[in-house]
Design a protein that fits this description.
The chain is mostly beta strands. It has a domain of 148 residues: outer membrane lipoprotein receptor (LolB), chain A, CATH 2.50.20. Helices cover 11% and strands 38% of the residues. It has a nine-stranded antiparallel β-sheet with strand order 4-3-2-1-9-8-7-6-5, with no helix packed on it. Strand 6 and strand 7 form a beta hairpin. The longest helix is centred in the N-terminal third of the chain and has 17 residues.
Length: 212
């Protein structure tokens, strides 16, 4: 049986239609472009501010101390070491501002557990304000800067300027002046006043009570 050429062409065309029309063929989706490395900006971490540096210089001025250390201010120190006779001492040492104005300050300092019975121990000592603490005062001192240092005492850790203080009466102290607390020593080392004096006392700040 012979088929006509027209029928054969029709069958061939029908078989090829799915291919020609695309049928079920899936089109490939275009890929999203990845950002270029130089276009990706990383947020730089912010530098943390460190503690402010303290210069090796006297950190207080007289007017600031007078304004900060008002009447009623109480500083308590832990006292250890030896007295003038070489006897061991261990006590609390408390200093109080009894009177205060823009020019002068009146203080009383004494041991707490075994108060001194020396004449005048509980009398108010009045003196002019200076650039040093009203406590552990020295008359017309010579002062030598030593260093800037952190010091840890019972009241905490403080940034301080260390100074050697001496006067013509023989009193001498090594003091740690708390940089941001005008008038407050964190630590005081009291030395001998002469060849027969065995004083070697250490005072470490234990507490601060602000006045009003």
């Amino acid at each position: 049986m012979h088929r006509s050429p027209w029928i054969a062409l029709t069958l061939i065309a029908g078989l090829s239609l799915p291919v020609a029309c695309g049928g079920d063929a899936k089109k490939e989706e275009p890929k999203a472009e990845e950002p270029k490395a130089e276009e990706v900006k990383k947020e730089e971490p912010k530098a943390e501010e460190g503690p402010k540096e303290v210069k090796l210089d006297f950190p207080w001025i007289r007017e600031k101390i007078a304004a900060e250390m008002k009447s009623g201010t109480v500083l308590t120190y832990k006292l250890t070491g030896t007295d003038a006779k070489g006897k061991d001492v261990a006590d609390d040492y408390r200093c109080v501002i009894k009177t205060s104005d823009s020019k002068t300050v009146g203080t009383v300092c004494n041991t707490v557990n075994k108060p001194s019975e020396d004449k005048g121990a509980n009398m108010v000592a009045t003196r002019d304000w200076t650039k040093f603490s009203p406590f552990f005062a020295v008359e017309k001192p010579t002062a030598d800067l030593v260093e800037v240092a952190d010091v840890t005492v019972p009241a905490g850790t403080f940034k301080a300027v260390v100074v050697d203080l001496k006067d013509f009466f023989g009193a001498n102290y090594k003091v740690w002046m708390i940089a941001d607390k005008p008038g407050v020593y964190a630590r005081v080392e009291e030395g001998s006043r002469g060849p027969d004096d065995k004083t070697a006392k250490v005072y470490e700040l234990a507490s601060i009570e602000a006045g009003s």
